[in-house]
């Protein structure tokens, strides 16, 4: 599918005004003309004083990758939900830890989206995302106490795989190459980052540039 370019609309974005006004009305719980007017006025002030940065991102929608992203995400949610429910029913005292994951994209949007998707899966909560380094810190439920290193390594691999599925679904070819992946919709898996594979991809990226 053709590449699309999205740009932020600046400090007076209509969508942002509507969203902030809606939040104001929900907080007050009063749907009146006066409250709506106050919400719009406050939204305009906030948008002017603290505008969101302009977003310039190129997307390339790959339908098969989008389908795989959604199906695999729903599968992960269902499996994790059963696992958490099992812990609750057993009244277990699970071991928890914080995992540090190095994401591969250099785009704030994909870092935020990866953190959001990770948090939506029961048992994991993103607690910090560092845009300059691409590091993501996630609280993990039920780490194997006998082998915590391997358990956290598996979790890190799952988050990186989630990011790859996201990138292959909507990222441009250049963004995929920048993240160290080949273009296309097929995911490569953890072994894709063997040193020899990385070297070969860097050579292909240099040739592409």
List the helices and strands and how they pair.
Blueprint: E1 3-7, H1 14-28, H2 33-49, E2 56-60, H3 63-90, E3 97-102, H4 108-120, E4 124-130, E5 135-140, H5 148-170, H6 173-178, H7 195-208
The oligomeric status of these chains comes to single chain
| Sheet with most strands | 3 strands, antiparallel
Helical content, roughly? Answer: 55-70%
Strand content: 5-15%
Q: In short, what is this structure?
A:
The protein has seven helices and five strands.
Task: Give an overview of the whole structure.
With 209 residues, the protein is α+β, with helices and mostly antiparallel strands. It folds into 2 domains: 3-54, no CATH class; 62-208, no CATH class. 56% of the residues lie in helices and 14% in strands. The chain has 7 helices and 5 strands; from the N terminus they run βααβαβαββααα. The chain has helices at residues 14-28, 33-49, 63-90, 108-120, 148-170, 173-178, 195-208, and strands spanning 3-7, 56-60, 97-102, 124-130, 135-140. Strands 3-5-4 form a 3-stranded antiparallel beta sheet, covered by helices on one side. The chain has a two-stranded antiparallel sheet with strand order 1-2. A hairpin with a 4-residue loop joins strand 4 and strand 5 (135-140). The chain is globular, with a radius of gyration of 21 Å. It starts with a strand and ends with a helix. The model is unreliable at 2-11 and 191-202 (pLDDT under 50). This is Multicomponent Na+:H+ antiporter subunit E. The chain crosses the membrane at residues 12-29, 35-52, 64-85. Keywords: Cell membrane, Membrane, Transmembrane, Transmembrane helix. One of its GO terms (molecular function) is monoatomic cation transmembrane transporter activity. It comes from Bowdeniella nasicola.
